[in-house]
Amino acid sequence: MAVEYKCCGTHFFISIAVIVFLVLFAGLMSGLTLGLMSLSLVDLEVLAKSGTPKDRRHAEKILPVVQNQHLLLCTLLMCNAAAMETLPIFLDGLVTAWGAILISVTLILLFGEIIPQSVCSRYGLAIGAAVAPIVRVLVWICFPVAYPISKLLDFLLGHGHAALFRRAELKTLVNLHGNEAGKGGELTHDETTIIAGALELTEKKAGDAMTPISDTFAIDINAKLDRETMNLILDNGHSRVPVYYEQPTNIIGVILVKNLLTVHPEDELPVKSVTIRKVPRVPETMPLYDILNEFQKGHSHMAVVIRKTKKSDVQPANGNIADNLVKEVKVVIDSEEPGQPKTPDKEKSMQRKKTFNKWKSFPNSNKSAKGFRGKKRRFMMRLTILKSHDPQLCQWN
């Protein structure tokens, strides 16, 4: 039976004050349950390190509170349930039983659920930082009951739920933050393209980024560096030109175009007489990040993508390649030796030397001329040529 209090008496005002406090307290617990639990540890760490000064202060206050999310959840729910269950007791002393139920449900629904959760969902960071000391006190008060329940949740659901994004999700998130998406993002098109490309790079192989060998400009090792060949090299505009032997698929190395500055087209020197750099071969299944790491070592900026079709194509354990798969080509870099009679090719080489010595007035020309005045030596380059059993797909640079 309801206990009746006289209106405007001491007990009446005490009951009204307790009812208001319980409604506000239940609303605060309900709002914090949504506001704090919706903030993941990753979001708070990002705000604490790279947010605005105001957000940094708020995140630093909230982080210690939400470290143990299950303990915080149990504390907030227990306090919310205690407030809602106590409210009808004080209402029952003022109104009838059905009136107490009706009023408590209305107050809890409106002021304890809808309004607090709407406000905390929008300003959860600021409100959570403001009441963080109160939440800490409540955690200690409810600790004897909330801690065992939180440990049970840790055992059943796991400890911590870091909301980390996968690569595909990060790519979509970056695109949404672009100014072209129309959502107020600050990233430009170039920035989103670069970030998305870096995220996709780990999923791509060498075969996905290669240039088909049919579209690649290359020269034969037996060709001559005459005016026509030099014009072709200049027209293509590449800093490196692949060199092949007999067939365009047999890439044996590359020449640097800058090394051809001292070559005169009238000398018609063979390609084999200039420095040919070794080009690495990589399988088409090699990840692009691995290739990028190899390029960053500085050994090469170009690679040849090959396809392994047979197990017999793999290099044997002793380190020697099978005879039926390879053959060697000897390339003479400078064949002039003392005591040998001069040939027409050698006379042209001497003329080229005299022409080059006229450039002493240019920067670094003394160093280059000194190289021509030095002793002639013979350099033999052994080039390994893979036959059609190990077909080369393309050049990659």
UniProtKB/TrEMBL annotation:
One Pfam family from the record: CNNM
Subcellular location: Membrane
Key words of the record: CBS domain, Glycoprotein, Membrane, Repeat, Transmembrane, Transmembrane helix
Domain named CNNM transmembrane: residues: 8-191
UniProt membrane topology term: Multi-pass membrane protein
Residues annotated as domain CBS: 210-271
SUPFAM superfamilies reported for this sequence: CBS-domain pair
GO CC terms in record: cytoplasm; membrane
Membrane-spanning residues: 12-42, 89-111, 123-147
Chain intervals for the UniProt region annotation (Disordered): 335-371
Entry superkingdom: Eukaryota
GO terms, biological process: intracellular manganese ion homeostasis; magnesium ion homeostasis
Entry-linked PANTHER family: CNNM TRANSMEMBRANE DOMAIN-CONTAINING PROTEIN, METAL TRANSPORTER CNNM
Descriptive protein name: CNNM transmembrane domain-containing protein
Protein's organism: Carnegiea gigantea
